[in-house]
Amino acid sequence: MRNYADPVIASDPAGLVGRVREFDRLIALLDDSVAHRTGAAVTVVGEPGIGKSALVGAVVGHARASGWAVLHGRGHDLEGLLAFGPLAAALGGYLHRLPRARRATYTDGLGSLASVIEGLAVEGADPGRTADRSRVFQAVALLLGRIAADAPVLLVVDDLQWADPATVDVLRYLGDDLEALGVVLLVALRTATSRPDVRGLVSALARLPRHEAVTLRRLDATGVAALAAGVLGSPPGPALVGLLERRSAGTPLVVRALLQDLRARDALRAGPGGWTSAEPDPDTPAHLLELFGAGLDRLAEDRRRVLELVCLGGEPVPHARLVELAGDADGLPAAVDDLRAAGLLVEDVEHGRVRYAPAHPLVADAALARLGEAARAALHARYVAVLESAPRVPPDVLARHHLGARDVVGPDRARPVLAAAGSAALRRAAPDTALRWLTAAADMAGDDPAVHGPLLFDIGVARQQCGDTTGAVRALREATDRLAAAGQPRAAATASVVAARLAWLRDDLTGARRSSALTLELAAGADPATRAATAQAHALQLVCLGDEPAAALAVLDGVDVAAVPDPGTRERLAGYGRYVRMVAGSGAAADALAALHPATSRCADERLEQTCSNARLELAVLLGRWSDLDAELVTAQRLGEGGSGPLRSWRTPLALFHRRFATGDWAGADDVVTELAASPRGAQWAAEVHALRAWMALHRGEVTGPQGLADRRGPDGEPLVPQGPDRDLRRVLRALAGAPGPVPRGYLVMFEWWRLLALVRAAAGRRELLAAADDLDRLGGPGTAPAALAARARASAATRPGEAARHAALAASTFDALGMPVDAATVRVEAAERGAGRDGLAADLALLDRLGAAPLAERARRLLGRPAAAPAGPVLTPREREVAELVTDGLSNAAIAERLVVSVRTVTSHLDHVYTKLGIGSRTELAREMRSTH
């Protein structure tokens, strides 16, 4: 007898991804039936392709292996006129495998079975006579009872929705006697069936004392990933999981079919980040369209038109809207009922409103595949007419129908709707969607530069967010030309500034200089505020390009901020000018931060407001002013929510990461990186995400030496050659890992403090350490002062040990006061290694072990004379281990997210990392692994 004390991990049959709990429930029922010598009924319900047959097959296999007599039949489409079809297959399939003598014992006196089971010889049967139905029912019951006297019986009818009426009647007859007969009846059927007799049978079985109802749901993203890993032999990448989840809606059959189709067309690529698809939106295999479109051709014209309207909607369609679209308020309820009964339409209620949607995305694909282009455009035009008069229609929905109806409604009417939808998509960080709408709008723009220019600017921003920097620069330069031709110098200068920054990011220094210089020319005839902002952007670009600071300062000296009429704009430009001067080496960071806090609350230029907020974020991190940073994060969030493109800054999540890392909240820092990587901007910020993970790995000892730093890889799995600031950032990380050679001194936006930390913590000489200390002192912040002291302590350790000890003690106490425990522990460990006292090291070691800062913890452990930590298996971060333990406790992803106050997406991403590190593919395996290590 199996032990079901822990049903979550009782078994893990192959191919039952996401169905293990249901499998264990059914096996427990079978075992209980054997133990009590009784019968039961089981109904397995789910939509097409959801895995009913796979679950039934696993139960059947287990039962046969356990000595059950399994009688297995199934209904088939269009077989409903063949009386007793599934029942004959189940009984005959079992009896014909038996020895003749044993078969004769079971069928003795049951001559009516010969009219049901083809080829069955029963003594006394009249082959030419049709048996009375009641005799057949009694004979089937007697047969099952005789078999059950020798072994437990499992009678299975799969695809019950297609079974003939006679089979359904026999099963209804058997229902009340299952317990007495000692037979377990298992039926599987689709969720929606129009047959009253089948619904009546299911209802009757549900009323039995021993009944188990199993409703199979669609897989979530974790289940889709696990299923794909089983099919492919190794984990899929996030993009492929997203594609499969979107196209399959979590239906296992569709996941398998899509993967098999992609594999057959050689469209799958293996890479270090998992499998990817060479086709971002592959066609649906024809056999899936046939499966999910079965019965569409038999629909009445009015029913098919209602289904087409719902499928074309792209989102659940409210009842009132469908009435307007269909134009038949009286006939619509009956049409909807018929479509629901056929399993083609589903109905839900949201906020008291009834809405309709296709039963599955592939039902929509199948229905729309039968529409011609002209008919589809006409239906889109009908949607446009209804939606334009409706309140609060999402921009994407309206754009989708305008694009589909462009030949009917005309380009002049469709273009502004598409452009507005593209801008809205940029604001919510959906660049792929934005690019679709904006490109379509640009195709309708003609040759008018005033129309084309803004569209090209947004297209450039969208391409940059999609990771296509080359295409982004090309679009922005074209936007610059069009906007200048349209007499819009400010917009043209803005486009040129963004083009210059992107050219710098891709290491095109010549192009960056050209675009940056062009901004000054374009702004020459603009208003004073535009001229000042453009000059400041050009000066900052010169610093980024590595020019002498004097060149940038000369540009700033020519800026006449006083000529700007608006007080709020003037004050912010003056503050930002102080910031750029500080970056160029003139002035303290603390003074720049003070200047960036305006006294005037209002500024009409939201781009300038966001630019100043970005600078304040950077300086607050650089200076270690955590209270200022917390306030600024709130401001940045408010500004970013309403912005698009450059207004949605990457500094916010990175600033939050640095704050959590520096203050010892490494689990929170992990969450930030995980959330950032899984966000729509994860691809856009791939270099930053890669660097942050490397940063954490270095401090946790997961990387030993510069050779352990993994290269960032592209979608094809090949290593990417770092360019521009990405290259400098990698050099900084290598320096922190112990690589020899100079650390780049160029300006790294938001990573300037990394350069300083690298100079302080890497194997730098005395001169470099003192120069770093001077740089830190110049910045003038609470977080930089103790870092400068730590640098001087290292520099003077060999020649003036007493002074070094005083510097180190003051640095450690200052870091402690600032709430920066890791920095304080680092200083104390270094000082102890130079011969200073060991006060506070025990507490530091406890903190470092908790955070997982293995290298520094081992140094502290050696100083305290404690044994080395025991070697462990794959290293999980504290947050990953916390998530894994909650999974082991049986919590869902949503419950874990609520417990940890993070998003479900973050929990899913943490689990993906856990699965990869432990080499497992399911929650069940994870539970086993975690329990085996306790």
TrEMBL record:
InterPro entries reported for this sequence: AAA_16, P-loop_NTPase, Sig_transdc_resp-reg_C-effctor, Tscrpt_reg_LuxR_C, WH-like_DNA-bd_sf
Pfam families in UniProt: AAA_16 (PF13191), GerE (PF00196)
Gene Ontology CC annotation, any one: cytoplasm
PROSITE patterns according to UniProt: HTH_LUXR_1 (PS00622), HTH_LUXR_2 (PS50043)
SUPFAM superfamilies with a match to the protein in the record: C-terminal effector domain of the bipartite response regulators, P-loop containing nucleoside triphosphate hydrolases
Entry keyword set: ATP-binding, Nucleotide-binding
Gene3D superfamilies per the UniProt record, alphabetical: P-loop containing nucleotide triphosphate hydrolases, Winged helix-like DNA-binding domain superfamily/Winged helix DNA-binding domain
Positions of the HTH luxR-type domain: 869-934
A Gene Ontology biological process term: regulation of DNA-templated transcription
Annotated spans, Disordered: 706-725
Protein name, as recorded: HTH luxR-type domain-containing protein
Source organism (scientific name): Pseudonocardia hydrocarbonoxydans
